[in-house]
Amino acid sequence: MENVSKQVVVVGSGSAALTAALAAKEAGMEPLVLESTALVGGSSAMSGGGLWIPNNSLMRAAGVPDSYADAQKYMDLTIGDVGPASSPQRREAFLQEGPRMVDWLTGLGFRFSYTPGYADYYPELPGGSVKGRSVEPDFFDLKKLGPWNDKLNILMPIPFHTLDAAQISLSFRSFSAFLHTANVIGIRTIGSALIGKKLAGLGGALIGQLLYLAIQRSIPVWVDSPMVELIYENEAVTGVVVEKDGTRQALPARAVILAAGGFAHNNEMRQKYHPHPITTDWTVANPGNRGAAIQAAMAVGAATALMDDAWWGPCFIDGQGKSQFMLWERSAPYGIIVDQSGKRFMNESASYVDCGHWMYARNQEVPAIPAYMIADARHRKYYPFGTLLPGITPQSAYESGFMVKADTLPELARALDIDPDTLQQTVQRFNQFAATGKDLDFHRGDSAYDRVYSDPRVKPNPNLGEITQGPFFAVRVWPGDLGTKGGLLTDENAQVLREDGRPIPGLYAAGNTSASVMGHTYPGPGSTIGPAMVFGMLAGRHTAQAG
Q: 393 and 474 in contact (C-beta within 8 Å)?
């Protein structure tokens, strides 16, 4: 880091950060990546690894039509006017540069995959896509990383793609799904290990490939090296102070790119900005997301936006006290979610961000935090629940309070302190909907997105199933999140802005450190990582113009 005129410090090591570092290197800069924890990848490595990128080349190769105009129309309808975080210029930059980013990374050696079928979250709206706009990383052998192969923040060691999860959730319901799962576990996982490979999918493959490209280009990555503060001189950012090996040192730089995640694990910030009740216990974001980068930028005059929002989603606390994000659990048949009065208040199969918003909105009227998932014996028999296999519920699940079981619905209601008559009426009404296939209250199962996680064997609506067979069980449902959505206000080049709209020279932000271009919504799978990488790329390239 001797040539300060080319020095770029990237704070964070997730998808936005590593993409920014690669782009800065391509632009002739000398990037250095700083990671505050011992592991690389942040929340991106823990994620599904998908990128929502409309009109990308993989879609075209698969014969799936899309266009800039359709995507723009869809984003305008789903996001609306939420202020400068999602300005027309930022939306245009995302839509124009997203497909180019996919092609650029492909040219560097990154391998993407696209499988039609993971719909946008509002696919029936004008411009929406039923077949989906999300690309994801192909499987990657972590052993290619050499000594870095065990330094990734990976949750899922099994190599599978996003749509594999829907098949895995039906392993006990369909022979084809069972064979599919056997292939994932047997051939991909065990088979690859026998020939000396360590295959990863999802977020592990995403970060694995990006880190591999960074290593190939001799981009240094410092772990256990938190940024302490920004160096701010003459109204410009000129470097950072970092703590490495117990010693603080100043790193002068041409530009600093903040891509260190949000503030999901900063309780003080969550209490200040987010709706209540709120806690850091429900989030599934990387524990390193403590808001330090956002606070450092605010200290030098950076503006913020969307600070009251997050990438919400229903979660449950398992028997070990860990928060688990809910997807197929709430979307599969034979279950509903009710508030503390015993009434349904949402489409349980809808986009998780919507479900989180609905939980907070309902809690203003009737206590709904926690809400309760109510299901009958078939739900537990047919489908996995978190890490629990279908039909196998250890006694510890009940002893820990994670699950509550009763022979009848009235008994279950009393155990949850819900009025038994209200819950019985709610279930009876829902059962009528299940019989006809039409949820007249919340339209569950009407959307192609609802049916991504469903059971096609259940007729006439694969998301609905009558709740009639005991024993019945319940799980407390909390408004968790994948990370926070608010952060530093940036322009179309990812430059951090002041309150008056002027850029702070030398300072950039991307990913959850910045306020999301998606506003308060979530247009499709990968709407977090897609923009994070696009604006990471734009930030990295623009550093050549900084100073």
A: no
For the beta carbon of residue 5, count every other beta carbon within 10 angstroms.
10
d(CA 514, CA 271): 19
Q: What is the pLDDT of residues 134-187, one digit of tens each?
A: 999 999 999 999 999 999 988 766 777 777 777 777 777 877 777 767 676 766
CATH code at 327? 3.90.700.10
Q: Is residue 356 part of a domain?
A: yes
Asked whether residue 417 is assigned to any structural domain, the reply reads yes
Pair 34, 12: CB distance under 8 Å: yes
Helix (H, G, I), strand (E, B) or coil at 536: helix
User: What global pTM score does this model have?
Assistant: 0.95
CA distances from 270 to 37, 280, 302 (A): 21, 8, 19
Burial 396-422 (b: 16+ CB within 10 A, else e): ebeeeebbbbbeebbbbbeebebbbee
Question: Distance (Å, rounded) from C-alpha 179 to C-alpha 170?
Answer: 11
Instruction: Tell me if the bond preceding 456 is cis, omega within 30° of 0.
Output: no
Tell me, yes or no, whether 233 lies in a domain.
Answer: no
**In which domain, by residue range, is 425 found?**
312-481
Phi, psi of 53 (to 5 degrees): -130, 95
- Does some domain include residue 459? yes
Q: What is the total count of domains within the chain? A: 1
- What is the structure's pLDDT at 179? 76
Spatial separation of the C-alpha atoms in residues 474 and 199, rounded to whole Å: 36
Inter-residue contact 192 to 207 (CB < 8 Å): no
